[in-house]
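Section 5.1 Outputs to date
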Amino acid sequence: MQKKAFEQGKWENNYQMGIEEIDKQHAKLFAMARKIVQLHQDDPSSLQSNTFVGVEGVKFLKNYTIQHFATEEAYMKKAGYSAYVEHKREHDKFRDEVIPSLERYLEESNYSQKAVNRLTGVVLTWLVNHVAREDMAIVGRAVSRPRKAVETAKLEETIRNVTVDLFSSVFHGIVPEVVNSSYSGEDFGRAVCYEKSYYSLETRQKVTFRMAAEEKMVFCLAGQLLADAVSRMEELTYFLVEEFCSVLIQNLDPILIRQSHECAQAESRFLTEEQFGEALEARMPEFSSLFETGIGKFALCIDRRAF
């Protein structure tokens, strides 16, 4: 039932805020990102095509953020929205940091296929997370963010709740259920495995995230974002996995490191299933759970250690 409900209609129709102008602008950005994908797929090896897609994509983003963010911010002010400052900070970061970073990467890579795929992956993932977690909060229909102070005794429960909340809010109709709260690497099917570590200089901790997701689940979720069938792992699909994991890490970081801190020396890589299993055998992580989504399983493993 869960899978059937998730597949009905377009994904973004579940996130209509009920504010006509803003909803139309969101739909336009979705259409732009998917147009980039289509143009890129039509002629992926052409430098001329990649350059056109990259230049026009960044130009659209710059113009879009000026118009769309101004519209949202004006609405929030008029409505007296209490989280206006935090919401605007997210807008400023995307406009002033994320877009320039993508533009530099495109230029430095001479508009490579990889850079164009990264542009699409970042934009789509940022959009679905921002609309589901930030914009829907304006109209009181978003899951609340985790707080900094969390009792240690409830840490594992909080990690699971935040993970479930993120999936259910970003991917409407997906409500993961924990099927193993002490997952130690048992095989659950062909999987995509990813690892990311970062350092907190203030707390002298290294935090390592590992996720393994069934391919069929990845294909289903990527297909919803791209509005097209996905049946194999390609560069863009890997970027979508990487960006979604980054969003999950951002949501979990406040409960893993309770004080304000800066992340440094982030390291990331995709793992083979064998490497994923070997990592768990070498050191059982602090937190390790297996989730069932109705369209496939995924494992989330988190470890913290002093350095």
